[in-house]
Amino acid sequence: GITKCYLTLRYSKFLLYLFCQRREQAMNELEAVNMLLEAIGSDVVNSLDSTHPDIGAARRVLQRKAKMELRKGWWFNTDYGVNYEPDAVTNEIVLPDTLSSIRMEDDTLIRRDKKLYNTIDQTYQFTSTQTAYKQIRLPTWDEMEADMQVYCAYLSAVEFVRLETQDVGLQDSYGKDAGLALIQLKRTHLQMLNLNIFNGANY
Q: In the beta sheet, which residues pair with residue 125?
């Protein structure tokens, strides 16, 4: 009734507020790289295209840590009930390169060679829509939610300091910050899941 509609509207506005807040607090990849460079006492840069000798290593650490965390599946990179249509010419279903994992509603279907494969019929060809029960995507750094960016940056700083300077005290300091960032990330994750459940999303 009216009360439920009013509550839904309030939660929708709250969801928009949280989204805007997270966007304002976002840490782009350049900021994250500079954080790692500062952690080892190196000069910061104005562009990721800089010839600074430590940029490549810093970006690799960021990407490795981010991928490790994203594979766990969070509210912003986990999708349910995604439909895939076979190609009109080949009848094959090519899956996105950005997928970390996918579980189909029909558990005889798996991902193989970046395409959907029927393990029973031993074929890549399909004649109808196939639905993924759950899939986890690997967004780029700038597509990640702000809380995940911050957590991955601090987590990467721990690793980068370990690799470049072996400063145990600095590792501990960044490790504590990473722990606090993880608490905030998990809190936001639960908030978003609860909001999605309230709005009828399939979680």
A: 92
DSSP state of 117: E
Rounded to an integer, what distance in angstroms lies between the CA atom of residue 198 and that of residue 192? 10
Q: pLDDT, tens digit, for every residue of 135-144?
A: 999 999 999 9
In this prediction, residue 9 carries a pLDDT of: 42
State whether residue 64 is helix, strand or coil: helix
Asked if residue 116 has pLDDT above 90, the reply is yes
Encode pLDDT of 164-193 as tens digits. Answer: 999 999 999 999 999 999 999 999 999 998
The model carries a pTM of 0.81
Strand, helix or coil for residue 132: strand
DSSP string, 67-113: HHHHTT--TTTEEEEEEEPPPTTT-B-BPPTTEEEEEESSTTEEEET
3-class SS shares of the chain: helix, strand, coil, % to 5: 50, 15, 35
Rounded alpha-carbon distances, angstroms, from residue 46 to 33, 50, 57, 110, 149: 10, 7, 17, 44, 19
